[in-house]
Write a structure and sequence with these properties.
This protein has ten helices and 23 strands. It is an alpha+beta fold. Strands 1, 2, 3, 4, 7, 10, 11 and 14 form an eight-stranded antiparallel sheet that branches. Strands 19-20-23 form a three-stranded antiparallel sheet, with no helix packed on it.
């Protein structure tokens, strides 16, 4: 799913557009015991509760693609009888009305999710009548030919509210606030099936994790049956290692700067696209080639790639490059440059020593203080 498709589903979590038919939940304590369960027609809930649930389910569709939000495909075996995808499909098709399926689902979550404290398992079913779109991209609500039926599930921590003083309006005094158990925003969740090309895709789902570095492998493997891609930080580390191992002694400043510039150009060209920029193994190899890496250094690239990132892996550009800055770092100095101006920093040999050189203008500040340049100085650079 891309940003536009996620946004389209997210817009349904308002009173005017609500497509949710049913909500179910199971409250689990820190010992993995089911404390209580509930199931309701969603629109029968009090309005205040509905808005709180909208906030929770919007959160499951929030974050950055490739970091908090991951598109995941089901392996073929999961779609066979007894497979994880086949079970989720039964759950969706039941519209959450079959108690046995709900109990099985709660048990699977409890078995696969390690937390150690209280949490709430939430599950909704929704049916979205997909409006058609005219050639000018305007929605045509009378031209729908598909209903997108889906479920969203999430796990929300349940914690005691923080102790505090509160004002008692009746007695006109301040007193210790009663500490309630509060449902917090979800730690993880998923949307099934995926909404790809504005249509139902039974072969994939969208997964959410609040912490992009804690993706809960056991949960995704056991409950969903999907293989997790590398996390955002792991992609960054793998890409850096790949560059260093591929280039070896040729990993100099100019080549790395060229790689950054070319990556920045690629992301700028597609900045208006709803799809993130993703680089396959072949595309990373081409990136290195156009950035000045010699062919002899690329002879063992494929082996380095598979050893570092794994076979059939890919890198999301936003995970391997900081689009907001270009950074040069030594043990004692860090230089940050606008991402589109890495050319402002270069290397030179000065007095026999390799130096980083930065051209300066009459707009230089030191600790916020504007300093004047000496026009008589022989060099107009900082080094």
């Amino acid at each position: 799913m891309n940003k536009k498709e996620i946004s389209e589903i997210k817009k349904q979590f308002t009173p005017a557009n609500c497509a949710i038919t049913r909500i179910c939940g199971c409250y689990v304590d820190g010992e993995k015991n089911k404390v209580t369960e509930f199931k309701e027609a969603f629109l029968s809930l009090p309005e205040e509760e509905i808005f709180k649930y909208f906030e929770i389910f919007r959160k499951v569709l929030s974050g950055t693609l490739g970091k908090n939000l991951l598109n995941m495909e089901f392996p073929l075996n999961t779609e066979m009888e007894g497979g994880t995808q086949e079970f989720l499909l039964q759950l969706r098709d039941s519209q959450l009305k079959e108690d046995d399926l709900l109990e099985q689902y709660y048990d699977k979550v409890i078995d696969s999710y390690t937390y150690g404290e209280n949490y709430l398992i939430l599950l909704i079913h929704a049916a979205y009548d997909i409006p058609g779109k005219a050639s000018d991209n305007l929605e045509m609500f009378d031209a729908s030919d598909e209903v997108y039926s889906y479920i969203i599930s999430c796990i929300c921590p349940v914690n005691l509210a923080k102790p505090a003083l509160s004002y008692n309006a009746q007695d006109r005094c301040f007193q210790n606030r009663i500490r309630d158990w509060v449902v917090e925003l979800p730690q993880l969740g998923f949307l099934f099936p995926a909404f790809n090309d504005r249509s139902t895709d039974l072969h994939s789902l969208l997964y959410y994790s609040k912490n992009p570095e804690e993706l809960h492998f056991e949960f995704t493997d056991s409950l969903l049956g999907c293989s997790l891609p590398l996390s955002a930080e792991s992609q960054k580390e793998a890409f850096q290692t790949l560059i260093e191992e591929t280039l070896g002694d040729s990993c100099d400043y100019e080549v790395v700067k060229n790689i950054h510039e070319n990556l920045h150009e690629m992301t700028e060209e597609k900045k208006d696209s709803p799809d993130p920029v993703v680089l396959s193994q072949a595309e990373v190899k081409n990136l290195l080639s156009i950035s000045g890496v010699e062919n002899e250094k690329l002879e063992n690239f494929d082996r380095h790639f598979e050893d570092t990132a794994g076979a059939n892996a890919s890198f999301m550009a936003s995970n391997i490059m900081n689009t907001r800055k270009f950074e040069v770092k030594t043990p004692d100095i860090t230089i940050q440059v606008s991402p589109d101006r890495p050319d402002l920093v270069e290397t030179r040999i000065i007095d026999g020593r390799p130096c980083l050189v930065i051209p300066i203008t009459d707009q230089v500040q030191v600790n916020g203080i504007t300093v004047k340049n000496d026009p008589s100085a022989s060099d107009d650079v900082l080094h």
